[in-house]
Design a protein that fits this description.
It contains two helices and six strands. By secondary structure, it is of the alpha+beta class. It has one domain: SH3 type barrels (Roll), CATH 2.30.30.100.
């Protein structure tokens, strides 16, 4: 079933298990004695939250929870026969997943995605920091109020 996925290559996947769980994780698939094994790192489940605001309005959202909430482990192995479906995470979900894992103290975001944060420079319109502007505004205020 998962023979079409490149083995021995790390990817961010969503796994639907025969137990009914839908697990998001960084994963590697490998062959062992004619059986495919999936190594999951920092597996998470999606939790849908519904909060009634009034009689006619409902707020819905989603969040992540650890797959095995009572375990300190962050690495699991599952067998191919325990998987119904596999897909890759969208870019947006991958970024949310990585941010959650980082906030929980897991792996830092890998170098491929660390470029999403760019520090501004003068070519982007940066002309100073808050302390510089505070000083400048104080000078302007003092000269206007004290002619």
């Amino acid at each position: 079933m998962i023979n079409f996925i490149k083995h021995e290559e790390e990817f961010y996947g969503i796994f639907k298990l025969v137990s009914g769980d839908e697990v998001l994780a960084k994963a590697v698939i490998t062959k062992d004695h004619q059986e495919s094994l999936v190594f999951l790192q920092d597996p998470l489940c999606v939790e849908i939250v519904t909060n009634p605001i009034s009689e006619t309005k409902v707020a819905r959202g989603m969040g992540f929870i650890k797959w095995q909430q009572l375990s300190d482990e962050d690495f699991y192995v599952i067998r191919e026969k325990d998987i119904i479906c596999v897909s890759t995470m969208s870019k947006q979900i991958k970024l949310l997943y990585q941010a959650f894992v980082m906030a929980e103290g897991g792996d830092p975001i890998d170098s491929k995605t660390s470029g999403y944060r760019i520090d501004p420079d003068k070519t982007m319109g940066l002309i100073g920091d808050i302390d510089d502007y505070r000083t400048m505004f104080e000078k302007i205020y003092k000269t206007k109020n004290n002619p």
